[in-house]
UniProtKB/TrEMBL annotation:
This is Non-homologous end joining protein Ku. Transmembrane segments: none annotated. Belongs to the prokaryotic Ku family. Residues 52-180 form the Ku domain. With LigD forms a non-homologous end joining (NHEJ) DNA repair enzyme, which repairs dsDNA breaks with reduced fidelity. Binds linear dsDNA with 5'- and 3'- overhangs but not closed circular dsDNA nor ssDNA. Recruits and stimulates the ligase activity of LigD. It comes from Saccharopolyspora endophytica. SMART domains: Ku78. NCBIfam families: Ku_bact. Keywords: DNA damage, DNA recombination, DNA repair, DNA-binding. Gene3D superfamilies: 2.40.290.10. Homodimer. Interacts with LigD. Pfam families: Ku.
Length: 266
């Protein structure tokens, strides 16, 4: 895996040299823009709006547009020289309980790979977080952009999750929900809680879930290659508009499914 960042994790006076690699990869089926009539790829050209000519990559830099339309031009060298302490160091500012960070802040996941000379200190930090049930919080700058970073044990190593800044999360505008939503009856509340418990598991196994959109797209691609028609599933219909009846039927189905599963494993 390609290393995206090299630096050190520091907590207290302990420094651990590490490399950062991506922990995830997209498995989505990708498409290209093509001409409908002949399937040829469409080429996107970079054209300067002032000179009306094509611009090669070596002449392209980043620009920040002001509200009045003026542009502040930034070169790659200027961006690379931003004075960011987190450019080469992840300083753990504090350790908090593992469930203290709201998942809405989670952005991207990476693996922190220790350098050979730091295996002992790396393992020590991983085990200390595991034993205390804590995760580390600090900052990291990746490609000139500083992010909050959460360090947590993951398998035999340590994972880094970049976090959104608080002002990047929108405030929920749900006033209508608390003002206008009807209060559930006691029987409905009790059945909803029973349904949640009936559908509950002690652990989460993501391998039990499938990406139906990817499977359907692949089936469509295969069908087009062989000039076959694919079956279109019937849309799901609403069983009942009555909330209490819907809860009752759902609860019965969940209980039957659980009973059938227990019989199958007995």
């Amino acid at each position: 895996m390609r290393t995206l960042w090299n630096g050190v994790i520091s907590f207290g006076l302990v420094a651990i040299p590490v490399g950062l690699v991506a922990a995830t990869e997209s498995r989505s089926i990708s498409f290209r823009q093509v001409h409908r009539s002949d399937g040829a790829r469409v080429r996107h050209e970079r054209v300067c709006t002032a000179e009306d000519r094509r611009v090669p990559w070596e002449e392209i830099v980043k620009g920040y547009e002001l509200p009045d339309g003026r542009m502040v031009v930034m070169t790659e060298d200027e961006l690379a020289e931003l004075p960011l302490p987190s450019a080469h160091s992840i300083e753990v500012a504090e350790f908090v309980p593992a469930g203290a960070v709201d998942p809405i802040l989670f952005d991207r996941s990476y693996f922190l790979q220790p350098h050979q000379v730091a295996l002992g200190a790396y393992s020590l930090l991983r085990d200390a977080m595991t034993d205390t049930g804590r995760v580390g919080l600090g900052r990291v700058a990746i490609r000139t952009r500083e992010r909050l970073a959460l360090l947590r044990p993951y398998g035999p190593g340590i994972s880094l999750v970049t976090l959104l800044w608080p002002d990047e999360v929108r405030e929920p505008d749900f006033g209508w929900l608390t003002d206008q939503a009807p209060q559930p009856r006691e029987q409905e509340q009790r059945m909803a809680e029973q349904l949640v418990l009936s559908l509950s598991s002690t652990t989460f196994d993501p391998t039990g879930y499938r990406d139906h959109s990817r499977e359907a797209l692949q089936a469509l691609i295969d069908a087009k290659l062989t000039h076959r028609q694919i079956a279109v599933p019937e849309p799901r219909t609403q069983e009942t508009a009555d909330l209490e009846e819907a809860l009752r039927v759902s609860l019965d189905q969940a209980r039957q499914a659980r009973t059938a599963g227990q019989r199958g494993t007995g």
